[in-house]
Each structure stands twice: as structure tokens, then as C-alpha cells.
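Recap from last week: sequence in, structure out.
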Amino acid sequence: MIVYFMRHGFAGTKRLNPAQDDKRPLAQEGIEQCRYVGRLLNALDVHVDRIYSSPLKRATQTAYFVANEIDFEQKIETVAALKPGADYERLRQLINQNRAAEAILLVGHSPNMNRFLSLLVTEGLSQKAVDLKKGCVARVEMGAKRAVLQWMVTPRLVKTSFAAAYASAQESSRPKISKK
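Predicted C-alpha cells:
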């Protein structure tokens, strides 16, 4: 089973009032981050059986933007196991409930996603082995006895790669020959 861990995109400054902070949307930069990462996942032909998101607005928006880019047409499920401050065991239960799935995408927050991913790939030895930047996605292969981090990509790397690919596509490799 493949589990994609994604931290929500950039959402501006944290609000002091927790109720208002829960409703904080993605900033324009965060929307762009989500679209770039979604396009990468689409280019990699990523298909997921389910998408789970924290119920906070910036996470659900991230999930929806990525879902749109990968043509995911099912309902995105919001779960408390991905909220800030959630318990690691709840996340493990969520993953175990989906063992029959080929792949799932989990969208959440820092520091939880960092801690969850670190604990999974280090078999509980470290809570700080992985640092997901805003909008970052990581692919983890879940085996029967262990989890292996296969790759992790930041939105900045994706944006740079797409820009370079676009620029090289614009340049022709054929020499220019004048027709006289």
C-alpha cells in the first residue's frame, strides 16, 4: 500500500484566535503550491483510492486542489486523526483501516505530519527524522513490517522543474536554417 503524506500549502500568518485560525484559507502562494504538486502527481500518474484531510480549511482546500489535478472524483473525507494535535495511534488506525487500498493521500499540518511520518519510517525511533515543508508531499510504501519513504518533493522543486521543462520544450533542438 502507498500512503502519500502532504502538508497543507502556505496559508499566511497564524491567527491568535484558534476558532479563526481553523478557518484560515490558503494564500495565493499556497494555492499555486497545491496546483504544482497536483500537476506533478498527475504527471507521475498517481491514482489514489481515498483522500483524507484535516477538517481545517487550509487542509481541505489543499486536498481539493490536488484532487482536481489528479482527477480524483470521489468525496474527500475529513478526519480528526489529521487535525493539529491529533494522536499518532489514530493515524495508524486510519492507515490500517485502508490496508486493502492501493494508495491513499493524507493532508494535514505541521508538526503532526512531520511527527507521524518520522515515527512510521523510523519504526518509532524518532519523531523528528522528516520535515515536510508547506505544500510538500512524500510517498511512503507501507509493507507488512515496515514503512519506507520512497521520495519527498517540495513545491519549490516542482515549480523549478516544471519551469525548466517548459523552457526546454520551447527551445528546438534542430538548428535554424534560413530558407532563401
